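Researcher: Re-running this chain for the archive, since the previous output was lost when a drive failed. Same request as before.
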Amino acid sequence: MFSFFKKKPVAPEVPQVSAPAPVPVPATPAAVVTSDLPDLLPIEEPAQKQSWMSRLKAGLSKTSSNLSLLFVGAKIDDDLYDELEAALLMADAGVDATEYLLTALKRKVKEDKLLDAAAVKAALKQLLTELLLPLQKPFELGRHQPMVMMISGVNGAGKTTTIGKLAKHMQSNGQSVLLAAGDTFRAAAREQLMVWGQRNNITVISQASGDPAAVSFDAVQSGKARGLDVVMIDTAGRLPTQLHLMEELKKVQRVIGKGMDGAPHETLLVIDGNTGQNALAQVKAFDDALKLTGLVITKLDGTAKGGVLAAIARVRPVPVYFIGIGEKIEDLQPFVAAEFVEALLG
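Model: Regenerated structure tokens:
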């Protein structure tokens, strides 16, 4: 696994209370982007990078083939633009991003006098990369002690699994982690988080039937008392249309702030990459309610379309810290605009 965290020097880890005996999980050396290195330059093994790119391309292969086939022997005319418009909309890029890309592409073709389909495709890749680049942001560790993360998402988005993967990544970067089972509405969520805690030898703050705000507060206090690096708080999955439940999330966020000034330091939303334009609606609703600091896009494999990132970039450009393409730990990796576009357009 390779990692993409920026990391500030942190104090020596304070031993934490042991969780139940962990299930051994194979680990590979993780690379770290530290604060004394240039931004956005991950140190990684070539074989690991190649493996990740292969899996990402496979995950986005359906959309990639639909887009790439348009440029095979194509003439640069209105028919090509019409087909490209349909393909982008089918890829969940949305009307706004699609119109933006087509307008910019037509202007570039005219200004640069592009005459063949390969050059037009290259121009589209450049424009899409530029559109997505503002979403690319390294996740910086060591800014607070502990750094408190509040993680939200609708049921089924892969929120709890993502928390487990992120916890493992952080441990690989020398961080001590505490998990809080704040999803008290779904018993399975608490049990699932406990399993991740056992696997990674991480303490999980949990109550069989408790107030999620109280659980979150206890976790922050525990993290401070133990001198830990990161406290990750799972919150109940819900639809953004469930206004009373969104108010509960706001309450949890306020109580976290009472537990530690300035917390939560990161408020993340986990999104299923297959939900299309509904994902954009989720970003808007959760951002309005919680002021999101970042996104994690999961399940970019199989039938994933991927174009929703372009829609997010145009309408609500919240940073995308990580993208996921599978169930394994190494299947969650930092979002890099150029890599994503290369996988999408080939």
